[in-house]
């Protein structure tokens, strides 16, 4: 899957820190390394002795803070930050996170990665009681639930509220005196904790953000945990004990950055294993192995290593591509692909090319890439996909919620092969994927959410139960 | 050499087209694929029935034409364009090309890739006659020489002027009725001609730009050629017959895009051969081979293939890095590197890493990358450079003109190894480089300018003869 | 009072239209003529067949819609718009109006000119019930009150909510099928209705906005009225019958544009009468009469006419002054005044100048203007203020809510005269002001809110009752 | 003439200072007060110990230096600056002044207000010798002439060059060690010298700029003078003794700011006298006198004073109008006028209005203003123009060079009256204008250039001699 123009996007990345003088700058660095998880908007809220300061806007982090004064103004020694992806209709500043709530007597900020499956129902209930929502994001529901909780203590209000929401979520909450971290009961989304040299804690969607701020990895946040970081240190609690790990397998396949470790497993290494396993499962007679840059290069090099074929740069990505060139129509999208991606004639001419891609979602650019390789002189193009057929939508944090958008849900492999004009097309098996990821669990469970491929959702879908999933 | 923050920059990329309805858009696409040759400024001049229209500004092409109307306004069916790199002091809009000359009775536009070695002398002579220069670019000298030529015909004036300048140059001139192309007598800089479906000619610094506009490669421009493209087709002439090919070897090592063919040789493939040869010349006991992204990945994969070691993604580049983060001080530069480049802990931990870089110029980031790998847990770091020691400045189109800026000119290999804290450091031999490039020439000459490594300049240096070269 | 740098600012201007194809453009024109009522932010919400579209941002209207596509995108045939002034701390985009509420089952937009005196109490009550506010503007309270009303019909919910708020307000509400207009029970703020050629209704804070869209004046909105404009025409109702007119006298003195008619009285003409009355009440021996541009020119010409002295341009305002030059410190403010305002040496030299200003609030620039005139050679400077001493803060829609900020509240006339270094200083009497405005009422009441001058507030102050008013 | 949308524009304003620490800021202030003389572009060049620094761009001064760092970077204790008006076709950054010339061995900056009448001929001659112009501005010709002068000393080169150019000009030249000031032999354009508190000299197009920087007026620059200001003080020389004063009468009528003194005469006062004289020459039975804001308010108040009629604000100008709203078509221009200018219904309704305008050039907005007054209820509209019929183009510094653009050149007064739908239309006589200005000269000459009205050009027109003048 050629990443920037695909239709599959992570909903967000989050970062938080408590107890560091340059909380604003650390959060900037952390978010910068999480930019691949969301490019539509970014924001940071800092805590200066209990007073929260905020800035957020649409665009890449570097655009949002192009005026550096915006960042300098966010003083304080604690912060949370967010990078966001959103579907077109919701792409407005009100939805950019962190959401900051200015109550008469307190302030509260919230950053969320994931998707709630009962937020529509909850929102309607709250509106019927006169509640007004400031955003159209599902993330805001939690705040309303906290405010109407009849519990006494704030932490109990939060537990109360967390027990009312369903779905996938990694929440960071910033209050006047703490940074609160919560993960859903299945641990759908990644969330890790690190420690700075000065002993302060940071939390981030991926470990690459811990590296970005020179923090040492401490532990991953586990399903159902509710962690409070404050001047008193880190306190680990649970909002539920009814948990069962079902970590998003697509984080390994596509979303996460290659240098991150997810549940202790390095992503590049896992992808390379996917490529090796794919080479074993679906070998093919070819001259060279080519990966779709950048997301499929690890899998491609694994395929090459296993098959003993040369790994070649048969496609090259233009590194000076801005997002502004993403185009609304198919025709313009093709031109856009040509601007982003080029076949290397001198490499692929007269060659039997094994093209490795990480996944096929809508398949819109796949056909184009095969054509580009043929125009560049490739004799044969064999497509190998380093994950199983993507047939079922996700409801726990990815923005594809319609089966009809997923090519593999209504096309056979042979139909897709023809559509792409490839000489052959094969996918990694689900078992192969599980083995390649190599997550160790105590019982027979894989600990992974593989519903993309088999439709077995680890949790009830609530508001989405009646959709075409 | 980690490309975006290095100190070595190509002076420019040029693109031209004659006879295409969407000359503006084609030139935009062509320049976009040449953006790696210059990121400081960009411009396009179009020809609408003899009337020239121009827009240029500082910044990346996509920034210069962020307001798309700027591009739409450049109507006409012929165009030349330019992307520019410049040293800091000269980074002003007056120097952004193409330069457009509005004479009372004619218009003339000019785009130049290269560096003239006698421009200072020529400029002083012209100023002493009362001439006024509109830019501080050496490129403008040619126009003044054309205007004072006593020849009758314009083409003879141009020949006259070309015979007065020395150095490396690829010139595109746009007049009311033609696109004129000239290459210096050594062919220092690359320049290729292609043909569109409709039979129109395009010319570009690299073949990747021909691919970008779907043009078929026709031929490379040869040393001393003066080519006129007009409604009558392409006419090939010479402004001198005293020519001797000395093509810039650094184009193969670093500058050119991996998918371009230079003198018929694919760049990625040549780089892979450099890596293979390096593995033969300087083998080392290691666990994995890691390339500095993106420019050294080809050489690294060649090294891995030859040595039979796994090629791994031990360094990852953040693709969301804007140029605005380039920093003036060493300390900020290191932070900037951390933002751009990260070591992949999960890959390099406890490994003997063979780190392949394409070249060492100032060496400023090399030490930092080794340190990053060690912090990420690498047991050993063996540095292998896929080109010889870069000891001598360039005067034919690259912006390093001071020997003191070149680390290898005043440090031994062992001194550099210590400085970088590498376990070993070795370079490709000059013979190895020549063989890896594999340019076929009729005689004993290599056809390459290798002066970077041995100081044997293929041409007299004129204004620079007394410098510390 | 030299308007742009003074400390007295109207809270807002509102405009609405129902049933016109180019509702967006009409609202833009209307707001443009109301720009003097607020320069900190602007926004427009349109109604396209029941669907509301919105754009708002900080800055002048022309800056907010500098990208004209922003305006074109606001399709629909009904709209409300708002220009906003705010105090510094609240100057953020969340507070820019119209506020748009996206409920699951309906949309609602709201624009407000005025100030609620019990909003703090109401907001706290609502928050204690779990309500979350999206802005820190008092205007939003109304929406929450509408949502929690137990009435059945929307119009009854609105009446219910209006009966809970206190203070000065002119509200425009845009729903899927109507434009609803409400004025407080004292009619503190101006609000007028006009009719376009096509029979559609428009509503605006001042009649100058009706003129701007070529609408014919129909009537002023009266205290306590609740007017619904829809496809069925205009329906006039009341949300309360307990009304008593107390129209803001400062609208006549300073706020309103000279070409507007307030309650049927032309503002320029009223101001000219203030100047005439002032000349009668406080005559002085002078050579020329000079007004502080632009707000005091009407009064100055009236003073000149009555006194038989020449009306001269002794001060000139730089029309190319942008708001960006307003400065935070006194020193910079003086330099800023010099950039905005200059004394005309050729006019004032050796003259006894009668300087007419409309009012003195903080008095910060007054001293500077007198000094400027003296430096320009004025022999004497007699200051005449065309309104009474401004001693008491306003709580019904102007942003001065601290007595300490009002110079006349703690300085005698003689103290002020010395402070300004004027040869004499006199104010218009309160009776003089009332007579000059000339509002006809049935009973003995003036129909005006004169509390600025005498502290007799026409309504209870609720949350402000304990302030230093 | 309603100023901002009229077709008559001054070509420029210039400002210079030598020997002041904050030369950049003083020049900014000076230019700001000269902004009415040109709004298309602005620039400043400073001298820091002989090294010149420059910034210039299109737009208003406040836009050009919106990023204040641009101004701070212009260090040094001497400077020249320029605000520019240009015709559409030439509105490009290359033409924005001051022009900075970077020669190999020296730097030179130049700012020019005026128009050369033989620049086309000179430019062609220079180009035929191989010279290349960096701008399409006539101002640059002088620099080329200086460079080709065979004189030894720089000041003699400059004299040599000045003697070759014809037309109207006020030149400021900044060199490494001096600020050089030159005025044409007729003194067409205003230029005055002032002195700062610290004894340093400043020079400016109008005295309002001297006031803006708190400088004391010293003297006007006289025709043919060549003044050198340096660390040695001010040295007054002449480049020619063949001089004859013919000061531009339109500076008094329209261009100059009301607070400036031209040749010792205050502009507002002169305009008021024009209005008085007009009232005597062309009395009319009316109720009120209304001026077109802002340029005609002085004349209108003079008319009112003389006629004993009330001076009223019958038209109001929106002070929040940005230039971005100037529109290319007549229809849009009318809408634009409505946004800028409104009739005050409450003032003009049922009144016989005497409308005073300063001049009629193209007459495009005049008809519209009369219509606006009638729509606002004016019973009669009598148009009185405070200058004679404008029939002949200007070639000495104003951008109207085509007779056909001047309404009065091809329409009788009665034709114009009908076109404007005015009840009457009358102009001030030429004698009346001369008397009102009141310039004292030794001989019978008026000392004024009145060619606009009578076609008697004070100098030969050279390149323009054959035009339809």
TrEMBL record, chains A, B, C, D:
<dbReference type="GO" id="GO:0004044">
    <property type="term" value="F:amidophosphoribosyltransferase activity"/>
</dbReference>
<dbReference type="InterPro" id="IPR005854">
    <property type="entry name" value="PurF"/>
</dbReference>
<keyword id="KW-0808">Transferase</keyword>
<dbReference type="GO" id="GO:0009113">
    <property type="term" value="P:purine nucleobase biosynthetic process"/>
</dbReference>
<dbReference type="Pfam" id="PF13537">
    <property type="entry name" value="GATase_7"/>
</dbReference>
<dbReference type="InterPro" id="IPR029055">
    <property type="entry name" value="Ntn_hydrolases_N"/>
</dbReference>
<dbReference type="Pfam" id="PF00156">
    <property type="entry name" value="Pribosyltran"/>
</dbReference>
<dbReference type="GO" id="GO:0006189">
    <property type="term" value="P:'de novo' IMP biosynthetic process"/>
</dbReference>
<feature type="binding site">
    <location>
        <position position="295"/>
    </location>
    <ligand>
        <name>Mg(2+)</name>
    </ligand>
</feature>
<dbReference type="GO" id="GO:0000287">
    <property type="term" value="F:magnesium ion binding"/>
</dbReference>
<keyword id="KW-0315">Glutamine amidotransferase</keyword>
<comment type="pathway">
    <text>Purine metabolism; IMP biosynthesis via de novo pathway; N(1)-(5-phospho-D-ribosyl)glycinamide from 5-phospho-alpha-D-ribose 1-diphosphate: step 1/2.</text>
</comment>
<dbReference type="InterPro" id="IPR035584">
    <property type="entry name" value="PurF_N"/>
</dbReference>
<keyword id="KW-0460">Magnesium</keyword>
<feature type="binding site">
    <location>
        <position position="358"/>
    </location>
    <ligand>
        <name>Mg(2+)</name>
    </ligand>
</feature>
<comment type="similarity">
    <text>In the C-terminal section; belongs to the purine/pyrimidine phosphoribosyltransferase family.</text>
</comment>
<keyword id="KW-0658">Purine biosynthesis</keyword>
<feature type="domain" description="Glutamine amidotransferase type-2">
    <location>
        <begin position="12"/>
        <end position="232"/>
    </location>
</feature>
<dbReference type="InterPro" id="IPR000836">
    <property type="entry name" value="PRTase_dom"/>
</dbReference>
<dbReference type="InterPro" id="IPR017932">
    <property type="entry name" value="GATase_2_dom"/>
</dbReference>
<feature type="active site" description="Nucleophile">
    <location>
        <position position="12"/>
    </location>
</feature>
<protein>
    <recommendedName>
        <fullName>Amidophosphoribosyltransferase</fullName>
        <ecNumber>2.4.2.14</ecNumber>
    </recommendedName>
</protein>
<comment type="function">
    <text>Catalyzes the formation of phosphoribosylamine from phosphoribosylpyrophosphate (PRPP) and glutamine.</text>
</comment>
<keyword id="KW-0479">Metal-binding</keyword>
<feature type="binding site">
    <location>
        <position position="357"/>
    </location>
    <ligand>
        <name>Mg(2+)</name>
    </ligand>
</feature>
<feature type="domain" description="Rhodanese">
    <location>
        <begin position="324"/>
        <end position="381"/>
    </location>
</feature>
<dbReference type="InterPro" id="IPR001763">
    <property type="entry name" value="Rhodanese-like_dom"/>
</dbReference>
<dbReference type="InterPro" id="IPR029057">
    <property type="entry name" value="PRTase-like"/>
</dbReference>
<keyword id="KW-0328">Glycosyltransferase</keyword>
